[in-house]
Each structure stands twice: as structure tokens, then as C-alpha cells.
Amino acid sequence: MDKMQDTIDLLKTYNQEHVIRLLERLDDRKKQELIEQIRKIDFQQLQELYENTKKEIEIKENKIEALSYVDKQKLKKQEKEALEELGEEILRKGEYAVVTMAGGQGTRLGHTGPKGTFKLDVYGKGKYLFEILAENLKEANKKYGKIIPWYIMTSKANNEETQKFLEKHNYFGYDKKSVKLFTQSELPLLDTEGKVLIGKDMKIKEASDGNGGTYSSLRATGCLAEMKEKGIKWVFIGGVDNALLKMADTVLLGLAIKEKVQIAAKSIVKANAHERVGVFAKMNGHPKVIEYTEMPEKMAEEVDDNGELKFGEAHIMCNLYTIDAIEKISKEVLIYHSAFKKNSYINEEGKEVIPTEPNSYKFESFIFDAFELFDDIAILRGKREDDFAPVKNKEGEDSPKTAKELYEKFWNRNSPKN
After folding, report:
1. For the whole model, what pTM was predicted?
2. Domain coordinates in residue numbering, the chain
3. What kind of fold does domain 60-414 have according to CATH?
4. Share in percent of the chain as helix, strand, coil (round to 5)
5. Rounded Cα gap, residues 411 and 230, in angstroms
6. Which residues, 6+ apart, have CB-to-CB distance to 338 below 8 Å?
7. How far apart are CA 278 and CA 261, in angstroms?
8. Which of 213, 225, 215 is nearest to 187 (CA)?
9. DSSP strand E in 244-344: where?
10. Residue 15: pLDDT band by 50, 70, 90 thresholds?
11. Is the Cβ–Cβ distance between 365 and 357 less than 8 Å?
């Protein structure tokens, strides 16, 4: 009874009385489950996040400057080999781990199930996105004589299905003992008045808190501690939906070591000034990725002395960190961005409401917001046709069709026969 009263007091404090009315209608088991969930939620944080949705995003142009990079294509043979040597040493020593962010569903692709289980129609028979990544890692294992530990971040919604899928396909030949799944954290959805939404399961509706939650989830699930026990020194973090993602790029790793930085990333040149991608920059002396939605038009179109876009290095979710950097970030609270989206919910009469317009806020932290915690970052400029074949939309740009073409062209150019 004390627990129930404490929960009611908490909900009243934060203007969530509709949840109290729900609690009164539930049977004992459901009531207990909801109370346990409520007690884990930081309502003060939610209130602050809701208040932030009313504030305008403002970027002062004079505080932003371009970030330097190294163009992989322009490296002399000797320079490239020297960087590769530095990177290869880490891989041969078994001091390298890979994290794949695979918490999303394939909804935008018209696919039912986790995004990593989507089959890309390549070479007739097709390959699953997880399969493509597994092949990429197996090739590196063979080359460097070590099995790279592979950590796959799922969501609560797709963890079980992902596990079953990988087991059914025998992890695509990857060493099962070297693969570990962990789930990312979640935050409640709020309506336009700051009230939590209720789901069909009669619990507060939650959604994954963005890819920025990767760091804290690595810590909370024990994966970070495990990496340290294994003697891991460098960690690569990338998404599941890039068919050309290189998870063990020794040039990128070598560049980070040479430049003595704790974080590094690969970029590609923006296709045009208004391509919808985040770009690397320096803000107040710290590295940052500025989202296309937050970049003033004048700044997006600015060119340098060579006629290239001044802010033209696109972030492609190809990030590298020292283990110490991951540990440092995992203890920090990153800023949250709000997205206004459509979400169904159960109303106070117990009926499901399926909105036709956006009705609620989802809060996400972005993986690149952590870059600001460091003084510098090493950027390696890659090539779109070699490094970036995203599978995001059902049709048009960044679709299975464009990814298939990029993937097949790349392997036709780079297969041993050629």
C-alpha cells in the first residue's frame, strides 16, 4: 500500500493523473507491473525534456568553423601503407571490437521485422543485412588472424526476434561465442501536454532513446566491462543498414593512432549543399556534427578557396573510439532531441486511438553529440561508391535499389578476378 501511495503522489507531482485512473482499473498483477515501471522512470527528466520542446534551436554562425580531414584517395602509397600498418597491429593483437546498432525495425522499407533481417536483392539470391556485415568481419578475421568480438545493440521490441534470426542462420558462420546482443535504453513518449502515453499492454509507452544511448547501454549491460577484460583498446560503432560499411578499416584506425586522438570517423563529400545529412564541423573549439535541419542555408552553401563546400564532410555513422573514450562518454548525459511523431495510445476510456497527425514527442540522443566532449577528432574522407550504400527508404534515394547497385558495382570492381 505504501508503494501504491508513493506512486500516486509521484504521478500527481508531475501532472500524470490519467495514469492514476488507469492504475485503479487494473487487476493486481497488471497494477504491480505498471507500478514497477513508473518507479524506474525519471519524471523530472521527462518534464525538462517536455519544456525543451517549446524552445527554438539556435546556432550562432560565428562560433562554427570547418573541420580538417584526410582524403583517403589522396594519400601517397607510402603514407597509406604506414597508416595501415599501425591499424593492423591493433587487429592482430586482438585489441579491436565492433558494435552494430540494430535496434530499428524495417518499417520504412515495408519490411516486417528487425532491419538487420532485411534481404537485399544482390546477385539474384540476395543477402541479409546481418549477413553482409558478418561477411565483412569474417574477411577481417581471416586477414588478421583474430576473431573480432561483435556486439549487436537491439531494442526491447526486436531483441528476441533478432536472437532467433541469428541462431536460425547460425550467425552466418560467425563464431557464436564472439557475438553478444544487448538492448538499448528507452524513454516514455509524451503527448502535446507533457502526459505519458499508455500502450495496449496497459503500460507507459516507451521508445528507444536514440543511437546516443549506445554508450550508456554498453556500460549498463556489462558489455563495456567485458571489452576491458578482453583487453580491447579500440571500438568501432556503426549502423546495420549500410551495405558498404567497413568495420575494420585499418587506414581509419591508423590515422586515429597517428593523430593521437580518442575518436575518429569516416566521412564522404555531400552530394550537394542541401543533401539531408549531418556534417562535421567545429563548434566552440570542439568537434560536432550539425544536422541538416539545424544548418542555416547560407552556411550550407558556403564554399572554401578550392570551390568545395566548407561544411561538406557528411557523417555516415562510421565511428571509432578508444575504450577510454567509450567509458568517458558512458558516464555523461547527452543532450536529447525531440521528434514529433504519430503514436497510437489507449485513452482514458480504455480505447485505442490511432492518430492521423503527429501527436507525441519521442526523445533521442544522437551518437555524434558525444564528439563535443573531446578537443579533436580524426576525419578520414572516403568515397560514396566505396563506403556508403544505405538502406533506409522503400524507394528513391537510399533505397534497396540504390544500395544493390552500389554494392554490386563495388564488388565487381574489387573482386579478386578483377
Report:
1. 0.90
2. 60-414
3. Spore Coat Polysaccharide Biosynthesis Protein SpsA; Chain A (3.90.550)
4. 40, 20, 35
5. 33
6. 49, 52, 53, 361, 362, 363, 364
7. 21
8. 213
9. 263-269, 279-283, 286-290, 313-322, 337-341
10. very high
11. no
